[in-house]
Design brief:
With 126 residues, this protein is α/β, with parallel strands linked by helices. The chain contains five helices and five strands, in the order E-H-E-H-E-H-E-H-E-H.
Length: 126
């Protein structure tokens, strides 16, 4: 399965990439929400998004909202989205889930915690 990691931090993208690749995912990266939309337009086979909240150009919450309301690409409404963020307040988690994120992982996180969230989402690389 193809996964898209959307985060303005190159270091975080690298950490997430390594964990996903050990699970067999083919990983792509974007530095903000607008770039993520461009990646999805270029490769509709992307089947998983891992999205940071706080990014320039377009933040993760806006990206999730756009994807869930995209009438031109109805398959995006079912795309599994894991919000991976430093936003640790319960209210923020509720906002992300209400916007359409399927799961929420707080930074910092361990590779095992990321894999556990993938298991909760029911996504596998193959």
């Amino acid at each position: 399965m193809k996964a898209l990691v959307v985060d303005d931090s190159r270091a975080i993208r690298s950490i997430v990439r390594r964990t996903l690749e050990t699970q067999g995912f083919l990983v792509f990266e974007a530095g903000h929400g607008q770039e993520a939309l461009e990646c999805l337009d270029a490769d509709p086979e992307i089947g998983l998004l891992l999205v940071d909240w706080n990014m320039p150009v377009m933040n993760g919450l806006d990206l999730v909202r756009i994807l869930r309301r995209d009438a031109l690409h109805p398959d995006r409404a079912r795309l599994p989205i894991l919000m991976v963020t430093t936003e640790t307040e319960v209210q923020q988690m509720v906002r992300a889930l209400a916007a359409g994120a399927n799961e929420y992982l707080m930074k910092p996180f361990s590779p095992n915690a990321l894999v556990a969230k993938l298991n909760l989402l029911g996504v596998e690389a193959a």
